[in-house]
Amino acid sequence: MNETYSWAEKPSQTAFPIAKAGYPFIWAAALTTGTLALLGIVPLALLGLVVTLFICAFFRDPDRAIPNGEGLLVAPADGKVVAIDTLAETPHYQGKCRRVGIFMNIFNVHVNRVPYEGKLTAVAYQPGRFLPADRDSAATANEHNALTLKTDDGHEICFVQIAGLVARRIICHVQPGDRLVRGQRIGLICFGSRVDVYLPMDTGIQVRVGDKLRAGTSIIGAFPT
Hints:
The chain is α+β, with helices and mostly antiparallel strands.
């Protein structure tokens, strides 16, 4: 089956786009590295250079071509599928639902994207713990930010940014009332984390536990058409 693709947002004009949230970390690391180099502390300066390059790589924000197709849901995060299950109840969804959990390690792109087009109806931030994000208990116990979206065809979905063991900052730059498109950037989670998607029961899930996904590009499921 041949897929067609489009851009959710205007492509960047740089060869290595970086998320704006990463610039303070990058400048701080670069300044420290430069200071160490000027002081002649070569081993620490070299370590600082490695750290600076790692931070640049962590905050990379590549453009993604978004698959077109009626009813298609795309991954909200890069990473590995660690959970696919059916829940009778959850704080993030009214009634029975399907859940797909995606774990991001520190080497994944951490920019999060919208799974499906629609209107954002709620954004609910909840402080919490910082358990390893690949644990199932992290879905509700950890600090998280839940975004509920009403789709144009009447479905309701919720996708939740979840902090992890190292992740200590969730960034979200959309708010209730915003009109979102499939594959649009909505924020990121700093230094290792997880994103769970809660979907209606009639959603056809098209991934399996262990699959590696790319945000905005990988199809995780589809609504019945």
